[in-house]
User: Fold this.
Amino acid sequence: MKVTLRTDVLTNNNRAAEFNRDLFQTTKTLVINLMSSPGAGKTTLLEETVRVLSGKYRIAVIEGDLATEKDADRIRAMGAKAVQINTHGGCHLDARMVAAALGEFDFEEIDILFIENVGNLVCPSGYDLGQNHKVAVLSVPEGNDKIPKYPQMFMRTELVLLNKIDLLPYLDFSVEEARQDLMEINPESTLIPVSARTREGLHEWFFWIEGAYAKCVQQ
Amino acid sequence: MHEMSLMGDIIQLVQEDAAVNGLGKIEKIELIVGDIANAMPDALKMAFDIFRDQNPHIFSETAELVIHLEEAKAKCVLCDSEYRPEQKIALCPSCNIPSGKVLAGETFQVLSYEGSNR
Assistant:
């Protein structure tokens, strides 16, 4: 017997994402899903973000990695609550893994939750986690070709943080070319050049977060 | 990449529905996979073969996976021309302006399956 389903393959993920989204909306928590290649500097960016913004917002972090608690420990050292999800080989976080970690937090006591996805420029882009915003981090040493080579990531993110701009004098990276490529893939996306190490440009990222938070609380 | 776990999701969806319909072994699964849906058809086929060979209680020996490819398609909001987006997804080839919106190619669905009557 043939049965027609026409069901989205990610149905179960999307159901869990809606469950997460309901909780985030009810508790007015701003949730940002941060994605990049391994080594682009997501954790360093989050360390700086937690350090600067935790006077103003109550921040929590979910860290996704194949193994180890290293990243969660780095965030805890900056004074924020952090929960580590180990995917044991899995190349991305899915909404069910995030849902399973939510019990660790009291969302009445949290303003902003960052979800640092597994370092991978392909797989995480397809999974809705229930976040308000998807943000990509690209770093200067990765090269200009990464935006056109991974369009499926950049078509689904609304902000790209171009990290490690302190290395621009030493490498052949063109910020203008990156902006142009990004606009031709996703004209609604913004690019903010930053250096988590020298803190250059980070105020623009913080300003973006403040705007997103104000919008999230109003809803 | 993650085609094994995607195939796990697909088989779970099919198994749950087959149980509701009182069907026995799965004989065929048909998918629709878009060009820009983040899933590679060849890797899905390989994952399917592995699951089938390891789970003779779920699949008939000759069970097959059929993949219908959905070509990516975008339409320019300025000149209305349709094009096949590749790298520069939003860039309309006639206007040379990032004014294209994706119409198709992101679908990733279980279209149907066939199961034996018990």
